[in-house]
Amino acid sequence: MSQGDVVGLLIMATVAGLAMPAGAILATYQGIQPKWLEKELRHGILALGAGALISAVGLVLVPEGIKDVSVLAAIFCFIGGAIAFMALDIYLAKKKTAGSQLAAMLSDFVPESIALGTTAALGGGTMLLGLLIAVQNLPEGFNAYREMLPKNKQRSNKLIVIFVLMALLGPLFSLLGFYYLAQFPVVMSGIMLFAAGGILYSVFQDIAPQIRMENHWLPPLGGILGFLVGLIGFMLEG
């Protein structure tokens, strides 16, 4: 690939990563009126992220991940990802840390960034996966910031700086996938399926339970919109 393609990959990975601090900045605005609208917007944003995550699993990670591995290996990697994310959840719950959403966000951002780099190295399109990473990082950044803020109210600006620095992991791991891991398609398939299993666990364990509101029906449409973003991108790239 040309130098221009590498630059394009880095730009895509950086933009996708910067959606995390963008979500955190969005989370600083808590004075939306009326109150019911603020609640619906928050739940809708969470649903948008859930839809994008499911879209990434169904349209990118699983289809690409099963190409180079056996059925048994696919099962092992997929279940392994779910168990690993569950173990992380249990550990963070025991530690009573306010960083469970942050850990979940990084746990899917890193393997997806690697997948972005390997996709580019193999000549595939990066628009769909990059777009889905950005769409899911926005609500994840929003939720992670809201979760961590109560224990860090005096350092709210520093939290946003931390989120900006974490965004740099995107181009870093994309380059790792581009220059190194693309040579090992079986390993990459395993990483994608591992991430897919972990992401689905996170959706059902952490995100979906927070979306539901009694006597409100609009927030789930955010999930439909999030998945639709992936569907449109998938069709355009196809």
TrEMBL record:
<feature type="transmembrane region" description="Helical">
    <location>
        <begin position="41"/>
        <end position="62"/>
    </location>
</feature>
<protein>
    <submittedName>
        <fullName>Divalent cation transporter</fullName>
    </submittedName>
</protein>
<feature type="transmembrane region" description="Helical">
    <location>
        <begin position="7"/>
        <end position="29"/>
    </location>
</feature>
<keyword id="KW-0812">Transmembrane</keyword>
<feature type="transmembrane region" description="Helical">
    <location>
        <begin position="69"/>
        <end position="93"/>
    </location>
</feature>
<feature type="transmembrane region" description="Helical">
    <location>
        <begin position="159"/>
        <end position="180"/>
    </location>
</feature>
<keyword id="KW-1133">Transmembrane helix</keyword>
<keyword id="KW-0472">Membrane</keyword>
<feature type="transmembrane region" description="Helical">
    <location>
        <begin position="216"/>
        <end position="236"/>
    </location>
</feature>
<feature type="transmembrane region" description="Helical">
    <location>
        <begin position="186"/>
        <end position="204"/>
    </location>
</feature>
<feature type="transmembrane region" description="Helical">
    <location>
        <begin position="113"/>
        <end position="138"/>
    </location>
</feature>
